[in-house]
Design goal:
The structure is a homodimer.
Chain A (H helix, E strand, L loop, with lengths): L5 E8 L8 E6 L2 E5 L15 E4 L2 H5 L4 E5 L5 H4 L2 H7 L4 E3 L1 H13 L8 E3 L5 E4 L2 E7 L8 E7 L2 E5 L17 H10 L3 E5 L14 H12 L4 E5 L4 H13 L3 E4 L2 H12 L10 E2 L12 E5 L6 H6 L16 E5 L7 H13 L3 E3 L13 H11 L3 E5 L3 H13 L14 E6 L3 E6 L4 E5 L2 E2 L4 H13 L1 E8 L6 E10 L8 H20 L5 H20 L4 E8 L1
Chain lengths: ~550, ~550
């Protein structure tokens, strides 16, 4: 065997988490990147807009990168592209719709790049450096989703991306069973497969299951229908279009980002828009209530935010009316049930009929256990690495593979950054590269770290108390202050007495400092902080951030 | 008919929400309070420990209050008692265990009160002012739960509290079907019934269903078993005791608050503790792993917090080991799924076998739709008011009553504070009294309001930037500053340039102010805030709180 008898697999995102999917395949010194996703922030990441993978490993090996290949057009697979292409100018590959959506993202964020874009047809083999790359159709909740097959001299690696085995896909494009099984028959070195639904038994229902449900809601509705969903849930939107046309309703797409995505899909022939269906979003108020459908999404594609704020993505307000039908067709993923419940409550209070999770207006786009087993049985890989899931999901997925007869030592549960080397002889985790989370807040990428987050957390719990002193340069004496300002701590008008007492405490502390000639600012600050912190905790059982500021005149 | 031909019902908590249950029954000028609960804070109530009902209406009518009657010993029914009894010294009634738990709460919080406590037996009628009050056994997840029946000259009101129709209750104490149906036969003026599970079809399983599940887990476990649950889930704890004894394991109750609650239950004969079962919580490490069970809860009775922090309620640490079995038996209520998922993930990573929601180690303590219908059919009330639930649940419960034949005009969905008057002739919402939420933060009750919360929210999103200036009293000139300090905004070492630019902006703004002789502080502050806010948003797309402070020397 030559030097290229092994393939190295380096996940930079998507393991032990849902989102920011990114995996590097390395042969000799050449790198190929699969997917480039972002993750929506978790609750405790206060003020953060998005999370992207740490790509230090890639920037350090810039020249070795041959390309980025995308599996499909969802945020958790293409959303970090605008940030990454700023640093890396490499060719981007994917199916036609996926590339168009990626380019739309760059346009929306006004990103200039020299990167070139190359659309691939399914089953077509493209040579990218030493990699022979092929995309294979797999069903998901958006058209043109694909698995990535990487043929190398050391063997074939198959990366599923998101998938489910939908037997009745909305656009009729079935998963490529033939090619999958043919690869399995020939022999696949390593399978990397989606673990998002590894906790769910059985099969995931078809996207088409939603059609009847949507139709029933349209049949029962006597006034406006308001639908909130992800712009990229294209199959769902397609079916809504068909039902609306059948029931002679017009649709106004309220949110601009949704219009952009739908425009892209339509321009490339992935969306069937019945003639006369869509109306100008400014004009819908001229249409009778029982003939209109309003579709929207919210900030960052989060369908609920528009509803919960009672406003649309572009700032316009909507007043709900008795008789409105509201369909909330979002992913009831962990974490937003409470928001959904509160939203539903508010809408019911306003007299709307609300259809959400329990009304089956959402189906998952990810394979359940029986489908995961089927993928394993089609591919029959030598090595298996569960990807795309929280840790317990990866463990469950690995367990499924074991049940199907894969040897324990050929199954690898990795953490982001761990390096897996596989060859026809053996597989092993050999080292670790830098991997992690970069937080995006506004225009800042990576400038919010643990210290800033820790401060935000403390501020969010008990607020802040600022103590300002002015000290004379000459004498070292306090010439003004201590003045105190608080925010988020107590409502000051109700706490005047507390503040007066606190001032006295500070003055006493300063007098003592003075005696000891502790004119060092740091010492004074520490002293003030300690005295106040103790006093306030005793009085209120709260721990506001205490910030002494000393001015010198 | 005399002046007392009507009963007035005033909910002060528990409507449109889960928790802080409190309802006032009024006849003539006399008031009787049912329950006195707290609510755990919602996510957006940053830093808040608990929420209690606004009792302005009660303090304004102090002398009219004849007593407080409690349905059962859970936080959402007795948790506000320590706060309320500070202001109102009135007799408290309830079943024996409920009263003992309420008194334990007062003791834990070191509350002194002159209030007297009166234990009532089920079916025993007690005269409290003009009210003839009776408690009736209803099954729930804690022993000694009861409905409150209030007999007045204008008719009978029945308040269910929390209940389910458990056919095999752990302590053998069935719901009092005879007395319920007898009341129904004689005629009940108004039924106020629990809506918590109005969204669930069918029947809720018996608490006893957990026994087999717990036993199976014990049978499979080969090392330590760690159980986290609410201290007040007494039936669940009882069954765990029985299973542990059967499998010859010792139990260490790690959390102090749980030990207190179990002590109370044991002392009053509501907990069967097999001899030799319990061991000193300090001593468990001397017991072999496969012979020990650790039970705990966390802060505020929230079972997860001990696990997520990797520490126990009283500060001691536990290191999880490969082979540990962890049972998370908490209420998978809206809002904590994400926390549960993250906890399970961390435990699986450490090698533990984890049983949680999906493993059926929790059953609800609340009646599902068929049981709610049964309650309505047993009582056959003239008027019906769904209580204890979010708005959509109240609406669904009302719909169930309508389906059973109750007239629309006899069903009342109220908001907290609305006043419902019912008599044999008619029922109507007639007015509104003060009702609302009082936030408890540390020792402060009600001193955190909307302004403080709004500030905490802003601080949590983008942090704070403080600008300090010292101005000469005589000349009106800036003699020191502007100095800037930020917290939670950007990591300052990475943003020195930004801060320098910002300082220049402030100086420019001040010079302009100076020219216009705008020596008024408020004007200077507004000017600084506007200039900085605009500048920082342009540069960072963030909106930190900007706090200008001016010192005078």
């Amino acid at each position: 065997m030559a030097i290229n008898d092994k393939v190295t697999i380096i996940p930079l995102g998507g393991l032990g988490e849902i989102g920011k999917n990114m995996t590097v395949i390395k042969v000799n010194q050449d790198l190929l990147i699969i997917d480039c996703g972002l993750m929506f922030p978790e609750d405790e990441m206060l003020g953060i807009d998005a999370v992207i993978p740490d790509i230090s490993y890639l920037t350090e090996n810039k020249n070795a990168i041959k390309g980025i290949i995308l599996t499909h057009g969802h945020e958790d697979h293409i959303g970090a592209l605008p940030y990454i292409l700023k640093d890396l100018s490499v060719p981007v590959y994917g199916t036609r719709l996926t590339l168009a959506l990626a380019q739309n993202k760059l346009k929306e964020q006004a990103i200039q790049t020299n990167a070139t874009f190359h659309a691939l047809k399914p089953r077509e083999i493209e040579k990218i450096g030493p990699f022979r790359v092929e995309l294979l159709r797999l069903c998901h909740s958006i058209p043109d989703s694909a698995a990535v097959v990487i043929h190398t001299s050391a063997g074939t690696v198959l990366y599923t991306g998101d998938f489910k085995f939908d037997q009745t896909p909305v656009d009729g494009q079935l998963s490529d069973y033939y090619r999958l099984s043919q690869l399995g028959e020939k022999g696949v070195l390593a399978l990397l497969s989606d673990s998002t639904n590894a906790e769910r038994t059985g099969f995931t229902p078809s996207e088409r299951a939603l059609y009847e449900k949507i139709e029933e809601i349209f049949r029962l509705s006597k006034s406006r229908i308001i639908i909130t969903t992800f712009p990229s849930s294209l199959y769902r939107i397609q079916q809504t279009f068909w039902v609306a046309a059948k029931y002679n309703r017009k649709i106004a797409i309220i949110s601009k980002s949704m219009r952009n995505v739908l425009d892209v899909a339509y321009q490339h022939g992935y969306l069937d828009v019945p003639p006369g269906l869509l109306v100008d979003p400014e004009q819908w108020q001229q249409i009778p209530n029982n003939e209109v459908v309003l579709m929207t999404t919210g900030h960052q594609g989060e369908p609920l935010s528009a509803l919960t704020r009672g406003s649309w993505g572009d700032g316009r307000q909507i007043t709900y009316q008795r008789g409105d039908t509201v369909i909330i067709s979002s992913n009831p993923g962990a974490g937003n049930q409470k928001t959904i419940a509160r939203t539903v409550d508010a809408l019911v209070r306003m007299g709307a009929d609300v259809y959400h999770e329990s009304a089956n207006v959402h189906v998952s786009g990810h394979a359940s256990q029986e489908e995961l087993k089927m993928m394993l049985n089609l591919i029959k890989p030598k090595y298996f690495m569960p990807i795309q899931g929280e840790y317990r999901m990866l463990v469950l997925h690995a367990k499924l593979a074991k049940e199907l007869g894969l040897a324990d030592e050929n199954i690898f549960i990795l953490e982001n950054g761990q390096v897996l080397e596989v060859s026809s002889q053996k597989g092993a985790i050999t080292s670790k590269v830098t991997a992690g989370r970069i937080l995006v807040d506004g225009l800042g990428v990576g400038d919010v770290g643990n210290i800033v987050l820790r401060d935000r957390r403390q501020l969010s719990q008990d607020g802040i108390l600022i103590v300002v002193l002015t000290i004379s340069k000459e004498t070292g004496q306090v010439v003004a202050g201590p003045d105190m300002v608080s925010r988020g701590f107590v409502y000051v008008r109700e706490a005047e007495e507390l503040m007066e007492e606190a001032k006295i405490k500070v003055k006493q502390a300063l007098e003592k400092s003075d005696e000891r000639k502790a004119t060092e600012w740091a010492a004074i600050k520490t002293n003030v902080r300690d005295v106040l912190s103790k006093f306030l905790y005793e009085k209120t059982r709260r721990r506001p951030m205490i910030l002494p500021i000393i001015m010198e005149v």
